[in-house]
Specification:
This protein is of the alpha+beta class and 61 residues long. Helices cover 51% and strands 26% of the residues. A three-stranded antiparallel β-sheet has the order 1-2-3, covered by helices on one side. Strand 1 (6-10) and strand 2 form a beta hairpin. The longest helix is centred in the C-terminal third of the chain and has 31 residues, at 30-60.
C-alpha cells in the first residue's frame, strides 16, 4: 500500500514526513533521512499488525 512521503532540505539536514501516518523524521543526509523513514514506517506497520493480532485473539476468547 503506497504512502506519500515528502522530504526537504533544511539548514541542519533533511526532514521527511508521512502526513497520513503522522510520521516525521530528520536525517543528516537524504539517504539517512530515507532510511529513518523506512524504519519508522516499518515500526508503524508492525505495531498495527501486533495490535490487530491481539484484538483477534481477544475476540476469539
Amino acid at each position: 500500500m503506497p504512502k506519500e512521503c515528502l522530504f526537504w532540505l533544511e539548514a541542519d539536514g533533511w526532514t521527511g514526513v508521512c502526513e497520513e501516518l503522522s510520521i516525521a523524521i530528520q536525517g543528516t543526509s537524504f539517504e539517512n533521512a530515507k532510511k529513518a523513514m523506512e524504519a519508522a514506517l516499518q515500526e508503524q506497520i508492525e505495531t498495527v499488525l501486533r495490535e490487530n493480532a491481539k484484538t483477534r485473539v481477544q475476540q476469539a476468547a
